Amino acid sequence: MSRRSRSGRSLRIAGSALALTLLLPAGLLGSAPQAPATSAVPAHFVVVGPVGDGLAQTEDSVRAVGGTVVQSWPQIGVVVASSPDPAFAATVREQPGVEQAGASRNLAEQLPPTESTRLETLEGHASGVGAAAVDGEEPLEADQWDLPQIKADQAHAISQGSEDITVGVLDYGIDPAHPDLAPNLDVSRSVSCVDEGVPDQNQEAWQPQDPTQDHGTHVSGTIAAARNGVGVAGVAPNVTLASVRVIDDGGFIYPEYAICGFIWAAEHDFDVTNNSYFVDPWFLWCDSDPDQRAAAEAVRRAVAYAQGHDVVNVVSAGNSNWDLSQPIHDTESPNNGGPTQDRHTGPECHVLPGELPGVVSVSAVGVNAVKSYYSNYGLGSISVTAPGGDAKQIPQTPSANGRILSSVPGGGWGWMQGTSMAGPHAAGVAALVRSTHPDWTAEQVIGAMNDRSDPLPCPKDYDGDGDGVVDAVCAGGPTGAGFYGSGLIDALDAVTR
């Protein structure tokens, strides 16, 4: 798959610019120089070795060169390590039991701290939450144009999902007291992975730390907000949610966090995971760089481990209006401090986890069922599409707000837009399929999602932002596959076929 050189416009904030920890892409060619160290603060590394008991030798090698074993995952042959030595990765690669090794954060721990600006932001709160439900709907459901778009309202008359199906939300954490989410949240299987990738089940660790950490709560409402006469309804309002925090207080998702999250999902009987993020600090991780190659291999093994435990992994495609099937010119990586690089990607560069084998990659549409102006796309890079919102496509709803309405921390509701909002619609449909067919494997569920999606044709002269200039070219003609993959997800088919 070739990549045409393209300058990236990172849409980082919902509204004028989007980006939740949404898979924003970018990539590089050649070896990336390490960020200069300014102190002896320990940096973090992933060390890849043999699966199983043989990883003990890898751990010994980490210690032999002055490193600390932070977390060991013999299930996938990965050690998370720390060392104050910026040359640790190069040194440990020469040791026995080590297949690959690399800095997982580009040595940013040894630079002045920074915060991510990539997450989508809340675009206002819903008013009138005390209004009475109409015709059996939730009080705010009239503003949820996204549910009828995927026929979820019709599906709910047949099935609202099973509590036996669990969706793990790998994100910023879920507000455990939110009235739309508390009925479905399993606190016993919730966890934080942001303390160096070490699981921590204390509620204080996995819940949002303040109201600005709203992304995970918003995503969760789209998946499974209860039909309880309060607020909004989710796509699968009876399924179970679990909070898996993989975004730290700085807004970053490092490889060790994602690895922990996928292994947790695999070993705690999750049926579906929702992943509305890309792994930091590289928008794309390139095999031509030994550090990036090692971290990418570790994440790949963790995702494969989850798939091997029959988990359906749903991933958002990203908010940069990039054609992921073509080369991308990235000038914003690494995104966690230090100098960025001017990089041109090739086929050896991949978004994590969005371009890993077997995941369900989801692009976004607005109310008109046309690609949202920010959504990434690409022939062969998108599995399905789903409502992500688009402020430029105006619905005929009480609010006339083209974004996605869902729950936010503190017991409220608000609007966001992004492929981060599209992914949870697909995760909800996956949960409905698994509820209807509990004996189906993850592979069968993914196949059904693709087969039962409604094809959308490519638009002509696509001008997503309305400025009179063609913004993207959709490959696939009447199939629309370049923008929409197999098509728009269909919740009704999920419960009737």
TrEMBL record:
Keyword Acetylation recorded: no
Alphabetized PROSITE patterns for the sequence: SUBTILASE (PS51892), SUBTILASE_HIS (PS00137), SUBTILASE_SER (PS00138)
Keyword entries, A-Z: Hydrolase, Protease, Serine protease, Signal
Keyword Hydrolase assigned: yes
Residues annotated as domain Peptidase S8/S53: 163-449
Catalytic residues of the enzyme: D171, H215, S420
Cited InterPro entries: Peptidase_S8/S53_dom (IPR000209), Peptidase_S8/S53_dom_sf (IPR036852), Peptidase_S8_His-AS (IPR022398), Peptidase_S8_Ser-AS (IPR023828), Peptidase_S8_subtilisin-like (IPR050131), Peptidase_S8_subtilisin-rel (IPR015500)
Chain spans, region Disordered: 325-345
Signal peptide limits: 1-37
Recorded family membership: Belongs to the peptidase S8 family.
Name of the protein in its database record: S8 family serine peptidase
Native source species: Saccharopolyspora ipomoeae
